[in-house]
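Collaborator request log, item 7. Partner lab (contact: R.S.) asked for a structural prediction of Cyclic nucleotide-binding protein to inform their binding assays.
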Amino acid sequence: MIQAIDPLEAMRRQLTAVYPLDNEAWEAFSKIWLPVTHKRKSVITAAGEVEKYLYWVTEGVQRGFHLHDTKEATIVFTYPNSFSGIIDSFLLQQPSKYYLEALTSSSFLRASWQQVEHCRRSHPAIAELVYRSLCITTSGILERQIELMVYSAEEKFRTLLKRSPHILQIVPHKYLASYLGIDATTFSKLLGSVRIE
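Returned to partner:
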């Protein structure tokens, strides 16, 4: 029988790959997380609200999206063993321009801004971890910006499946098309014609 990894242990492994925390810092950081669940299709954070929490996904799939008039633009997907939340609203404590929605029933560990901020100010190792995490996130955002601006629809599709081959099975295709910035018809054609090596 395969034993599930404790969510905090999974988080520690992920964080260690970015910047290892000493035992004292990890002890303080690990104590601030509490479990919470959200039902399928529930809005976790709405545009106009200030993001109060940082989430660690333990189960389910979520998406961050922007709504312009009636058009939705999917920005990000999160799934188990990753952080979630509207990060700019969380860090700046200003109203969000985006929604965070549970695409499936979802379970998380979550910590409040005050708790994360207290840990960051109290432990230099946590401050360094936050800094390095933001550097990695910024690099990924810039790379994705290039993909959206200059890649063809097929290149975007291939890049997505290379990066996240499992995503076709867990995210509705209309949201994947939105994420890639292509229409649903083009996405459907690519689905039928592109062979992934």
